[in-house]
Design brief:
Chain B: It holds the Pfam family MoCoBD_1. The complex is a heterodimer. Chain A is α+β, with helices and mostly antiparallel strands. Chain A contains ten helices and twelve strands. Chain A is globular and about 55 Å long. Chain B folds into three domains: about 200 residues, Alpha-Beta Complex (Aldehyde Oxidoreductase, domain 3), CATH 3.90.1170.50; about 240 residues, 2-Layer Sandwich (Aldehyde Oxidoreductase, domain 4); about 150 residues, 2-Layer Sandwich (Aldehyde Oxidoreductase, domain 4), CATH 3.30.365. Classes of the chains: A alpha+beta, B alpha+beta. The interface between A and B is medium-sized, with 19 and 25 residues.
Amino acid sequence: MYSFDMVRPTSVADAVAALGQEDAQALSGGQTLIPTLKQRLAMPSVLVSLSGIDELKGLSVSDGVMEIKGATTHATVAREGGDYPGLAALAANIGDPAVRNRGTIGGSIANNDPSACYPAAALGSGATIVTNTREIAADEFFQGMFTTALEEGEIVTAVRFPIPEKAAYMKFEQPASRFALVGVFVAKYADGVRVAVTGASNDGVHRWSAAEEALSANFAPDAVEGLSVPADNMIADLHGSAAYRAHLVGVMTKRAVAAAD
Amino acid sequence: MPKDHGIGASPKRREDVRFLTGAGQYTDDINVYGQTYVHFLRSDVAHGRINSVNTEVASAMPGVVRIFTGADFDGIGGLPCGWQVTDKHGEPMKEPAHPVLAQGKVRHVGDPIAAVVAESLEEARNAAEAIEVDIEELPAAVNMKAALAEGAPKVHDDLSDNLCYDWQFGSDQADVDAAFEKAAHVTTLELVNNRLVANPMEPRVALGDYSRANDESTLYTTSQNPHVIRLLMGAFVLGIPEHKLRVVAPDVGGGFGTKIFHYAEEAFCTFAARQINRPVKWTSTRSEAFMSDAHGRDHVTKIELALDAENNFIGLRTDTLANMGAYLSTFSSSVPTWLHGTLMAGNYKTPAIQVNVKAVFTNTVPVDAYRGAGRPEATFQLERLVDKAARELGVDPIALRRQNFITSFPYETPVAVAYDTGDYVATMDKLEEMIDRAGFDARRKESEAKGKLRGLGINCYIEACGIAPSNLVGQLGARAGLYDAATVRVNATGSISVMVGAHSHGQGHETAFPQVVAEMLGIDESMIDIVHGDSSKIPFGMGTYGSRSLAVCGSAMVRATEKIINKAKKIAGHLLEASEADIELKDGQFTVAGTDKSVAWGDVTLAAYVPHNYPLEDIEPGLEETAFYDPSNFTYPAGAYACEVELDPETGKVTIERFAAADDFGNVVNPMIVEGQVHGGLAQGIGQALLETCSYDEDGQLLSASYMDYAMPRADDVPFYAVDHSCATPCTHNPLGVKGCGEAGAIGSPPAVVNAVIDALHSGGHTQVTHIDMPVSPGRVWAAMHG
């Protein structure tokens, strides 16, 4: 690690002000950032911790929408998110207990790791990402691996998930990291089905529109039988070829539909 | 009724109290006054010419004490290789220099270029970033076949090519050729034994200290064999005589072979401490461990089995490329040769066997012994091959093995070794009893009802442990003897310290060794402690590897204890006014045979140290004896393993549902510890089979350089094991009749797993799949199914 200063503001306004300093970096759960710092792969001048800001914590439900504040941990969502069971189950299976007790939803989607779980839930639910300055639809928020619509110094203050009729997330784990080798989030709403895929693509989290159409017509595992995802832009690495990942997208989608409740 | 003390009892491991309560004293826990910290600047390219290393700016940075480069080691010895292999033409292996810090060239990612010694680690790292290194990157030799091709980049410019040796071993060529000519069936298999990173929980650490007052150096290091390090580093690298060099390996958090070897960082810290007259400490990060700990395995093999019309094995031929990496690590050359070729008979009476091994230099981290070392490679290829043969011939894989078992002992194999004892039929019988083979079809149907495939994989194994007879290994090229030593120091009140050359880094010696001495003397184990890991405290020792501790060092301890008993009987005879020949020792009492006259153990030990009434004219006071023990043969643990897997045909994911191991370890001192050793070995073998692999890209960049990509087995990857060691045929040539158990699990389990996966795929109609290289990952299984 390089030397840095650290501040721990207690309000979003103070955090935004602190992030205005040169080379300032927001620190939420730190599950990606701290290892990065330990490897000396980043050299922020000041870390602005979001963990002391009460207005960034907790979740609530109203009018069929679950709002989760940005600095809410995965463990909290797993424990208290029962009104959206598919989302709570996803949170309960991110990483290990240490990750779940430190890692936050805001940190996860702001980082937009191409193998992370939460981006699939946000995109698959058509969530709204709320920041200190605006509201961004998930379809506009995720812009390719490790890239989002966030501006410099902008903080994710909450994510609003419309609660679907049914949903489930199926993750096929990469054997070493246990991140998603392929993860598929399926959510059925009154006006249609959304399918979001993580782990698989060089473009990061994305929707699978052919499956959405088929499942909107018939929400059953069989509906995606015969559909295939092109392998062209899939990730290929030690753990699986592009063709394998493309195949797994189909398998995990089918299984998510079968598991949805 | 199980015993509650002595040999055969299972007292809980006494060392676990400190390990589990955070009170262990590991090398990194040791800090010395005035200590400095070193950070190694390592190569980020696989192969390159060092044009310049400019340390001027870095040397002026805050906290920097001194920066060392390869030039500081001009005229100082390089890291030695401990085993001279002679090739099939009678020529010695090529043995390139291995400088402590790179000189002229870097040869693998992680090769140390410079070492920054500073007041703090952060200051050392900061300064390392300011060193200006001009390296001209060269094409790298990574793949072994490519490295041997004409015109391949040369890892060592002063060698003619990248071939370290071309070794051939076994039966006469004519006998092998004849077997294949008359064969009714030949089964051939090409396979890879995947490169592994040992990944002990504790990374390597070295702390060098120097006392100018008496010109003495001390090295604290994470080693499995401190005396070996003292010998190699003192005599070959730094020129420090033994009496001026102390090597301490305190609590060590796992070794698995990779902490046997003498490493550059140890030599550096000892050297630098003398140069700057201050202690120098290095603690490896996990990232450094991936690129500087010697890796394991990495063989590519073609193996052929000749069978006659009755399915008897009549000939075996292997052709292996073995990766040495960029330099020869301490025992690297012996692993693919004498630790591998000598095991190719396995459990079978194949009369003609030939083993060919080409060792290859590549621009990768050096490769050396890892749990099993050569023997897992031998077992994997042989047991995969026998399974493939059974499938090709349409015969039961267990029946084919049974038909070819060696059944009479001692047995001289065509590959130099002589098995003293064994009963392969008994362990296979036991295994079949353990696995409920009759119920397998029902279990397979249950799996199929869930859309899964189920497979059963069986294999046998044999290993040569209790390493090793010195005169034999000397003839084979070892540059060391492989005996061990123990001193039994009986104190005045009867308590005992046993100084042993074996080193415990997870094996439980501190519990098991006292059980042996307690049994021999008839006293309580709590009166006995084991001292190990410090060259200033123990007589000598070749350390712990090759499942040798109890078989070799334990035998030395038995011999020393026998000397203690002999002397104590003399003292007791004097005290009892009886002839020494009439004295019997039982339950800690010396008794005159046939009488009720006796003295207690403590009376005798006190007399030895307070010799008021003592035969001083005949024997010396005190009660302390040392013995060195050199084994007359290897030991040959053997067994039969079975694995049942479930395979998800949609994803290719394999889960292990059942695993059974029937082992013959000879006599067993502490059954609980033995079971623990088997469990650990199985986890590592299953890790190799399903999860672990160390991968380089074509430029020699390490792809699996962290736990994000290197898959270690976790608790939920392994099943509850069924283990048994009741089929014991005691070793005939050591006093305890023990064979060793540390490596068996890692040797015996990989073929069982892969055999089970192939069985599952065949049951699902994927009969085109005859082999999948390890790790049998979901992606590979799926590719094989659709390939």
